[in-house]
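Students often ask what a holo structure prediction actually looks like on paper. The answer is less mysterious than it sounds. You provide the chain, you provide the ligand, and the output is a string of discrete structure tokens encoding the 3D arrangement of the protein together with adenosine-5'-diphosphate.
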Amino acid sequence: MTGSDSAVIPQDEVLAPARPVSDRGGHRFVILLANAKGGCGKTTLSTSLASYYAGRGCDVTLLDLDPQQSATQWCRQRKDSGNDDIRLISIPLDGRFHAGKLQGPLREAGDLLIIDSPAGLNGTALDALLNIARVVLVPVLPSPIDIRAATRFMQSVMLSPANRRRPKRLAVIANRARERTRMYGKLELFLHSLKIPFLTTLRDTQLYVRAAGEGCGVLDLQEADQQDRDAWRTIIEWLEIQRHLTRTLPGL
Ligand SMILES: Nc1ncnc2c1ncn2[C@@H]1O[C@H](COP(=O)(O)OP(=O)(O)O)[C@@H](O)[C@H]1O
Ligand SMILES: [Mg+2]
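The corresponding structure tokens follow.
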């Protein structure tokens, strides 16, 4: 399989039984999971995405920047369960963090680098990550405080020097929400004005807690229902479109 014909997982392959997909074109795709707030689902999304792509044969690296190291624990649990298919790099982000620390992970990473970031990400650390990320996924919980924090966070992304140099593809995911429209009304207006997509809503279910403990993704659990699969299909399809654009229009 060549780099060009393997760039995108075709639509009918999304969430279909595994078929190895390799990306040898040299265009590493970097996904940053970020939001200023803790507990909104950054690690849940990072690990579920890592599991999804690894399960389809992608060369996945998970970079855990959170001093709490939840993604690292998830990865260890995954290894203990016999799945050693994700390259883990842990660099707890602290006051001594500088952009140079990302060079090692970038060199080591294969096709896909997924970055799980800590709460409170801002300033030079945010800028350094935006410099290497192609897309930024922002999970948001359905509370006014979380929605305000997410709005401020996206403003700081839009205003960051890295984003001005090369605009990022941003998208928002409503997490643990029963119904999106009412609570998220203001956020939707804000996103609409900036043309940022509101991708989907992930329901509130203990399956995510279970997947976190078992070192797998929620879709690896048989109990995941159609709503879960549809929501993840939307996320993966959007990511695959961005990945395709990265390869075909690298300067975009
Ligand atoms: N959709 C969901 N339904 C139920 N629990 C969830 C969901 N998403 C995340 N969680 C749980 O919420 C907690 C915080 O999520 P986490 O991904 O660790 O947030 P963050 O990394 O942003 O701090 C974790 O215990 C996680 O298992
Ligand atoms: Mg986390």
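Residues 43 and 59 are 19 Å apart (CA to CA).
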